[in-house]
Amino acid sequence: MRSDTDRCRLIAAASMLLLPPLVLLTRGDYPGRSLLKETLSMLTLGAFFLLFGQFLLGRGARFAPEGIRFGRLLNLHKIIGYSVVSLLLVHPFLIVLPRAFEGGVSPGDALMQILTTLDSLGVVLGMVSWVLMLVIGATSLLRARLGLDYRTWRLLHALLSVLLVVVASWHAIELGRHTDAAVALLVVMLACAAVLVVIRQAVYDYSNPLSQTRGARP
Amino acid sequence: MKAPHENNGMSRRRFLTLAGGTAGAATLAAMGMAPGWGENRAAFDPDNMDQKTHQTDVLVIGGGMAGLFAAVKAHDAGARVVVLSKGRLGASGQTPFAKGIFAFDAREAGMSLDAFVAEVSRSALGTNNPVYTRQMAEHSAARVAELRDWGFFDSPLCNKAFSRPMEARGIPLIERVMVTHLIEHEGRIAGAAGFTLDDGHLIQVSAKSVVLCTGAGGFKPNGFPICDLTHDGTVMAYRIGAKVTGKEWNDGHPGQAQNPAACFDGWHGMFERKPDVTGVDVRHDLGVELNYVAYTKGAPLPPGPPDRLLGRLDGGPSRPRGFDRPHGPPPPGGGWLTGGPIHRPPLPGADGGAGGGPGGDKGPPGMRGAPVGGSSAGMAIHKSEGLVPINDRCESNIPGLYAAGDALGSYMAGAIYTQIGSSLAGSAVQGAVAGEAAAGYSRGVPMPSVPADKLAQVENEMLAPLRREAGYGPAWVTQTLQGVMIPNFVLYIKKESMLNAALAYIEELRDHHLPMLCAGDLHELRLAHETANMILSAEMKLRASLMRKESRCSHFRIDYPEMDDANWQAWINIHQGADGQMRLEKQPFDRWPA
Amino acid sequence: MAISSIDGCIGCGTCVQSCPTDVIRMDPRTGKAFIQYVADCQICHLCRMYCPVDAISITPDKSIPVVVSWG
Ligand SMILES: Cc1cc2nc3c(=O)[nH]c(=O)nc-3n(C[C@H](O)[C@H](O)[C@H](O)COP(=O)(O)OP(=O)(O)OC[C@H]3O[C@@H](n4cnc5c(N)ncnc54)[C@H](O)[C@@H]3O)c2cc1C
Ligand code: SF4
Ligand code: SF4
């Protein structure tokens, strides 16, 4: 019973994050593309917006809807985190993938062209985000093996995540196919919210030394 | 017309043309171009453009199939080479859209080289130059093999494959240069000049020899991807005294009634296909039969294979015996050369008119929807128009000036499409021949030094449209020219009175509007020169069409519907007389120019 | 209206080079490609096929300038 309510709330929370972009997409006047391309775009967009939700599901969870246990949230945080990061790591390849099924530049050549367009701020931001995601993913997966103690890792994770959310948002605003003014505004707002959550958590931790030993352990 | 340096990017004239009505304004809004559009300011002063000069043995102009092979083979023959091209290598001109390339293989064809040449000549009603027909077939397989090595057949886009041999040899390539002038000095070629489209540099190349690979052209027609080609090479060469041929012939590709300007859609995805190789299959295709049917029966022409629906018509273009039906199998033996009589075919055949690509069977599968005419308006059959060769080495009558591919009036295929895929193959073969010949020529001559005042004059002419305070916009002049030239009853179904009437219009454009063409930025400067070239091409087309008082292959005179072998076993060459007037003369089919 | 929009451009400049009729230019302010001379688009799709991120949309219709007595 209890877990059912949890689930409902979680689904509600997740759709809160996914709905706005989807609404924007259907509302927007974007040129029609093939089903494959639209699907890939949607997946990428969904993954990107879920990124923001991660800040609420992490230790920021204390601000999440009441009555959901931290442990469950952190589990969810992990599941979403690993899948979203994997998807966004292949995002550059997904962009060029449809070229394999149509006439035009080949996927390999297209990727090379993208990776060599280094005078484009958006491309560089994308590359930085990609590396950040890789590091965030790897340090989470291999924390124990890397011998990172929990609190160091937690700090690192928070810092890298904030950096990522800023750089990735900038990248999405700079290059996003579906980024018009409304989407850009939404992204900025969500990014600000995410950063605020982390700052608030830090302030809380600072003013409340006890919390530094009490954090839920993953 | 504002002075260019005050120009806010979108010239007033362009704005007026586009936004001439509320519909236009609505279109602009719909395009969402309000703030960004026209942002690319012509932020340069025509009196203060950067000069870039180059020196080379062989200058190749054009980055299509012919230009590629000219550059590569001239380099391999030991010459220093520079390539200038209005568009990107392998992504401009007609080369990007051709998907079938011919390779002659006697064994596979079950036909000797001699038999092949004879068969083409039979279909071409004598209009082909058998020397070039043979040369094309003879070298085609070797060129195809090289293309295969470079990866030409691996992608629908050819820039990468074309770049490979260029980069391997380190051949300098300057793209997006509009060449406006060939420079002649002391009776021979001395180089060329133009300007870059992006940063507005003046480019001047001193060269011992020049290979024109500038392709053919048209009147910026809707429905054929040749709007970047306006016979620039031909007209530049004509202005310095070269002989030009083939202006009376017509390419008869139809378009489709629905969205006639959409080339990509009209070819039903063919542009996205990888190229492949075609074998021997001699035809008599894509003349003006469909235009004749539309002229006599009226529009719309029913979709589908036209011969089935339209049945026989009296009169109209005739076909050589054995080529009665488009794509029909040639009969064994006989032919026009041995005096076989001509008779009229059912019009127009199966997939002939609406089907195959120019010189290729890779055409759109029956271009669905009612066909409309004029899609390639202003263009002749590939290789039938261009500079007159004085020998089999692609040499023009101006020492050091060579031409290859669609820029050379080699009559390789004749004045009608005869062999699938031979257009692309011919450009490759002739490019190689011309490149080698130019390299050989440049070994024996010193680097020309052109006097400064001549260069100053060239620069003046080039930039004049930018300096004019008032005048006529190239887009408007082009539109007017199209209105005069493209109608079926002027361009395709010809008669004396209409040709003369059109000529009066074109002379007006030539004498009054051409000298007043103006441009607000580099894009318009290019358009201004292209428009001037189209006006001269139109005049050539009308005069040659008036002169040829017979019908043959893709030239049809409704007032002279018969072929006249007594008077017209001849090509028409055009050159500029000492008085600046256009002069036309005959050159017998079996002879090189005098 | 021929080439109709560019979305998701990374500013590589390939389409500017690959357009035979010089329709597209780079906007120096944004570093991205934009449609500058749409009237000259020949609807050949080369720009779209060469674009590494498939950013370019093209429609089959074309708006032709209205007829005026001089221009
Ligand atoms: C839609 C279509 C389908 C076709 N299909 C086939 C086919 O299946 N098989 C076949 O054999 N043929 C086909 N053809 C014909 C074939 O494409 C041409 O005959 C051939 O490609 C011509 O090559 P080229 O190098 O001579 O000229 P082009 O390829 O036309 O090249 C001309 C070059 O000159 C440059 N240039 C022009 N003017 C200037 C200037 N003023 N300054 C600088 N540079 C300039 C251009 O930018 C371009 O790079 C087709 C043509 C079209 C349009
Ligand atoms: S090719 Fe594509 S990514 Fe590159 S500049 Fe053009 S639209 Fe932008
Ligand atoms: S469709 Fe062709 S003409 Fe139009 S912008 Fe693209 S490349 Fe240029």
Automatic annotation (TrEMBL), chain A:
Domain of life: Bacteria
Lineage: Bacteria, Pseudomonadati, Pseudomonadota, Gammaproteobacteria, Chromatiales
Membrane topology: Multi-pass membrane protein
Major location category of this protein: membrane
Compartment list: Membrane
Spans through the membrane: 41-58, 79-101, 121-142, 154-173, 179-199
Keyword Secreted on entry: no
GO CC terms: membrane
Keyword Membrane: yes
Protein name per Swiss-Prot or TrEMBL: Ferric reductase domain protein transmembrane component domain
Pfam family, one: Ferric_reduct
UniProtKB/TrEMBL annotation, chain B:
Keywords noted in UniProt: Flavoprotein, Oxidoreductase
Any coiled-coil regions, as ranges: none
PROSITE patterns linked to this entry: TAT
GO biological process: anaerobic respiration
Pfam families xrefs: FAD_binding_2, Succ_DH_flav_C
Region of interest (Disordered), ranges: 297-378
CC annotations in GO: plasma membrane
Biased composition range(s): Gly residues: 350-363
The UniProt record lists the keyword Mitochondrion: no
Organism superkingdom: Bacteria
Domain Fumarate reductase/succinate dehydrogenase flavoprotein-like C-terminal: 481-589
Occurrences of domain FAD-dependent oxidoreductase 2 FAD-binding (ranges): 57-152
A GO molecular-function descriptor: electron transfer activity
Listed InterPro entries: FAD-dep_OxRdtase_2_FAD-bd, FAD/NAD-bd_sf, Fum_R/Succ_DH_flav-like_C_sf, Fum_Rdtase/Succ_DH_flav-like_C, SdhA/FrdA/AprA, TAT_signal
Protein name stated in the entry: FAD dependent oxidoreductase
UniProtKB/TrEMBL annotation, chain C:
Residues of the 4Fe-4S ferredoxin-type domain: 1-29, 31-61
UniProt KW 4Fe-4S keyword: yes
GO terms of molecular function: 4 iron, 4 sulfur cluster binding; metal ion binding
Coiled-coil region(s): none
InterPro entries: 4Fe4S_Fe-S-bd, 4Fe4S_Fe_S_CS, Fe-S_Ferredoxin
SUPFAM superfamilies, per database record: 4Fe-4S ferredoxins
Key words of the record: 4Fe-4S, Iron, Iron-sulfur, Metal-binding
Domain of life: Bacteria
PROSITE patterns attached to this UniProt entry: 4FE4S_FER_1, 4FE4S_FER_2
Keyword tRNA processing appears in the UniProt entry: no
A Pfam family it matches: Fer4_21
Record's protein name: 4Fe-4S ferredoxin iron-sulfur binding domain-containing protein
Organism of provenance: Thiocapsa marina 5811
Source taxonomy: Bacteria, Pseudomonadati, Pseudomonadota, Gammaproteobacteria, Chromatiales
